[in-house]
Amino acid sequence: MADISIIGAGSWGIALAVLLHKNGHQVTVWSVIEAEIKILQKEHEHKDKLPGVKLPEDMVFTTDLEQAVRGAEVLVLAVPSPYTRSTSHSMAPLVKEGQMVVNVAKGIEEKTLLTLSQIIEEEIPQANVAVLSGPSHAEEVGRGIPTTIVVGAKDKETAEYLQNIFMNEVFRVYISPDVLGIELGAALKNVVALAAGIADGLGYGDNTKAALITRGITEIARLGVAMGGKFETFCGLTGIGDLIVTCASMHSRNRRAGILIGQGYTMKQAMDEVKMVVEGVYSAKAAMGLAKKYDVQLPIIEQVNAVLFEGQLADEAVKNLMLRDKKIENPLLPW
């Protein structure tokens, strides 16, 4: 049994808290929001974020960050990506040398173009940082629906330890050394999922969805490999796997926001309606910054940015994609 603290009481943090408790670990859940913690202490259920998932009586809920961090063997950082840096900064004085911090959020910081694990390493240099990612909606993990995911870490010993911590009969965990590739797939798929939602909102069909998923993973892999990620990662669970589930599921807040935008909502109106952080909105500009830095073309992600931030009409964005210059699908294949 390990002492594990979940830093962040959103839907994903709560789902992982339930999973880890079922695995026999002592779990503490921290949130900066006092009202949220009081509800969890009283109701043992997060009715706003994860209704129907009951939390055990012996699970600890606190707003005291020092209580959550000190003494925990593993810290699961589950705050939304825009708060990764500020939360890591607050945690830094409390984290001991070699303490494990597992990032489970998905995103890229717009100003610095850093992945979330890079931010954590910058703010908490003494931590042993790993990531957990894959096709895994909190609504299903919280209910014990079979799910498969990947832990990424720089050393195999850390990855295997975390694999044992998280894995059970309904939560299969693979391990990988490609932390960068895992995080890029996780962040960029949210932008493509916005595009898939926009297409749904416009009333398009399965043909369009398949095209966006297929060409979307091509864009993600193109940029990821240019940055040093491994191509095989983008063919796996944290690449095409996560992209499929995020583009296809109504659990996806990015797809839901995209549907609203396709129906005529502004980006802000769509985010207000979804009532949760839409990670793809925050990663979209960062993706274009990376595309410029590494001289990589990302036509789908470019059009998403145009719709979100430049007033481009959604149907015009689709036309722009369809009428691009003629291309060979895979220029590496010989005639």
Structure description:
The chain is an alpha/beta fold. The protein is 52% helix and 12% strand. It has 16 helices and 8 strands. Strands 3-2-1-4-5-6-7-8 form an 8-stranded mixed sheet, sandwiched between helices. Strand 5, helix 5 and strand 6 (128-133) form a beta-alpha-beta unit. Helix 8 (179-201) runs antiparallel to helix 9 and helix 15 (299-309) runs antiparallel to helix 16 (314-322). It is globular, with a radius of gyration of 20 Å. The N and C termini lie far apart (58 Å). The model has no long low-confidence stretch (mean pLDDT 95).
What order do the helices and strands come in, and which of them pair?
Layout: E1 3-7, H1 11-22, E2 26-30, H2 34-43, E3 60-62, H3 65-69, E4 74-77, H4 84-91, E5 100-103, H5 116-123, E6 128-133, H6 138-141, E7 147-153, H7 156-166, E8 171-176, H8 179-201, H9 206-227, H10 231-234, H11 237-248, H12 253-262, H13 267-274, H14 279-294, H15 299-309, H16 314-322
Parallel strand pairs: 1-2, 1-4, 2-3, 4-5, 5-6, 7-8
Antiparallel strand pairs: 6-7
Helix pairs in contact: 4-5, 8-9, 8-11, 8-12, 8-14, 8-15, 9-11, 12-13, 14-15, 15-16
